[in-house]
Amino acid sequence: MSKILKILLCADDDGIMVKTIKNAVSNKGFEENIVLVRDQHDAETISKEIVDADVVYPDKAVITREMIKSAKKVKLFQYGTGYDTIDLEAARERKIPVCNMPGITAQSVAEHAMYLLLALARNDREYGQEMKEGKWNRGVGVELAGKTLGLIGFGNIARIKARIAHGFGMKVTACRKNKEKGNEGLDFVDIVDFDYLLEESDIVSILLPLIKHGSYRTEGLIGKKELEKIGGAGLGWLINTSRGSIIDERALIESLESDVIRKAALDVYETEPLPKNSELRKLSNVLLTPHIAGETKEALVRRYTLIAENSIKVMNNERPRYIVKELQSIF
């Protein structure tokens, strides 16, 4: 008789999720019970369903200490790339592995970050829609060739974006925590200091994880002083496809209003979904997308397949892939 495997997915089914997970679990000795909590902010339902779940995919839902304490059966919290919404210390105390998926969405996020850059260069105009409406409103764009792109962070996503930008003829600089790793064979990338990157780049692109504690804390990394440095150099553009809290959002709004930052493109925000009354929605020099950088069919299939594979591993008392660095020492 097959064992029941309850997987709690804090996400809506995009037409790929449940099908992919079911196919991957099929014939592995388990009868899957997949529960969807479509509203990631529905803490009451998540708290109810987590009690007898074996595996939880929180996505962007907040997992509190109280939830973890009540999750008597949970053997795995499986995240995507970021895992800043879970109480890691509570998971450590319960010895429940928390895993993420490094590199799973890297290509998709890098391509989206480049799309945002191209959109800024062409004035973020709905030319196609305007043409269909019978208009002929032309505009003057900016060539990217010869411009300097500064990458804050130099992980999987940044290295892919660096190669794409290099193909456009851009100069690429990057700053990274482990400077001794250098440019990892990408000879066209100069590894520079943080302040130098801010002061010398035409466009700054944020591509590093949100870290809330410790000596490598990135929360609030970009504030008023850093924005002034970005605005004082070249084009003065800023792109964020990482996490909203890396930027002081109020300082960013003020810098956009005063034209210190001439243009920005954002896929992530301090509060998500972005509130309807957010000042960002009213600014003409900012391009907004709804945290979709990693949402491509290819990336989603890879993501959901890994959820299923890690679920089978923990149910068979095997070590799951990609335990987050903060918890690796206890497993």
Q: What gross morphology would you assign?
A: globular
CATH architectural category of the largest domain:
3-Layer(aba) Sandwich
Q: How many independent structural domains? A: 2
Tally of alpha and pi helices: 11
- Spans with pLDDT under 50 lasting ≥5 residues? none
* SSE pattern: EHEHEHEHEHHEHEEHEHEHEEH
Strand residue percentage: 15-25%
Describe this structure in words.
With 331 residues, the chain is of the alpha/beta class. It is built from eleven helices and twelve strands. Helix 3 (65-70) links the parallel strand 3 (55-57) and strand 4. Helix 1 packs parallel to helix 11, helix 5 (106-121) crosses helix 7 and helix 8 (194-200) packs across helix 9 (224-231). The model has no long low-confidence stretch (mean pLDDT 95).
